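2024-03-11 09:14:02 DEBUG pipeline.ingest accepted 1 chain
2024-03-11 09:14:02 DEBUG pipeline.ingest length=87
2024-03-11 09:14:03 DEBUG pipeline.predict start
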Amino acid sequence: MSANQLADYSALVLSRVNNFRYKNIVRSSTETGFVEEHDVCCTFSDGGELSLRVCVVADVRNNRIFSVREYADSRAARKLIEALSSN
């Protein structure tokens, strides 16, 4: 995903949910970068809440993030995926 695609995706998420935030952030350094765990939280238009545990593994080169791999339970993310797919 390019920086522009990430910006577009982020804008879409913010347009479809309320009170988007990260909670319970835990970050650890690794030999090649860092690992971060956090809860992605938001409120849907119907009042439903999402708390999705996410793990991010990043490689850093020359003090810049070179690559990012993000892992989440797609079943737990179902309602967010549906919100992003709706018109």
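2024-03-11 09:14:41 DEBUG pipeline.report Strands lie at 18-29, 33-43, 49-61, 64-72.
2024-03-11 09:14:41 DEBUG pipeline.predict end
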